[in-house]
């Protein structure tokens, strides 16, 4: 009996000590801020999406016509010293449509090709050659940068510097300071690529003999956002 009472007293004492330690534990306050890093660069690459499109009554003839043009287009692209891995067929489509006015069916055949161009200097020659060989639709182009990974690293550094600056500005008002970072959360990097008006590019094919500028690369932005929690002193 005395032994059981002794054990019970020890357990109660340990429980009281644990509760006392829990109440006396101090949670270190933190400050959480979002940092944004932006790097701007002039793009040096462009992806061009073009297609050949024909409408008619015979799906077989339409496909043969498109295939002939695409074969000629691919041969021309290769003659421009553009590597095979930079050229990709995006899709081949054949749609059957009903004309309510004539009450007949017709077909629309499309075949699209994407070209990744690393040398912007040959853009004009490439576009003129594509249209000379039968390309009759341009879906658009998008600019990019060859050293995108380096740009993302620069954006991350700027984002962290921005977060630290914000945290220091907040704590300075309170006559406090920040400690080490205890949590960092990165949001997805976003690369804003410039777009070009396709109608303007198609009109350029009508010029003769004159070298014209029909695109403006401008700038692209690589953006990184981070949430950072700093200890608050």
Provide a compact summary of the structure.
The chain has 233 residues and is an alpha+beta fold. It has helices at residues 2-24, 59-79, 123-132, 148-173, 198-203; strands spanning 30-41, 45-56, 87-99, 104-117, 137-144, 178-186, 190-192, 220-232.
How would you summarize the topology of this molecule?
Layout: H1 2-24, E1 30-41, E2 45-56, H2 59-79, E3 87-99, E4 104-117, H3 123-132, E5 137-144, H4 148-173, E6 178-186, E7 190-192, H5 198-203, E8 220-232
Antiparallel strand pairs: 1-8, 2-4, 2-5, 3-4, 6-8, 7-8
Provide structural commentary.
With 233 residues, the chain is an alpha+beta fold. It folds into two domains: 26-43 and 146-205 and 216-233, Protein of unknown function (DUF541), domain 1 (Translation Initiation Factor IF3), CATH 3.30.110.170; 45-144, Alpha-Beta Plaits (2-Layer Sandwich), CATH 3.30.70.2970. The chain is 37% helix and 36% strand. The radius of gyration is 32 Å and the shape is elongated. It starts with a helix and ends with a strand.
* Radius of gyration from the alpha-carbon trace, in angstroms: 32 Å
Q: What is the CATH-assigned architecture of the largest domain?
A: 2-Layer Sandwich
Structural class determined from secondary elements: alpha+beta
By CATH, the topology of the largest domain is Alpha-Beta Plaits
Low-confidence stretches: 193-211
Helix content: 25-40%
Key words describing this protein structure:
233 residues, Alpha-Beta Plaits, Translation Initiation Factor IF3, alpha+beta, 2 domains, four-stranded antiparallel sheet, 5 helices
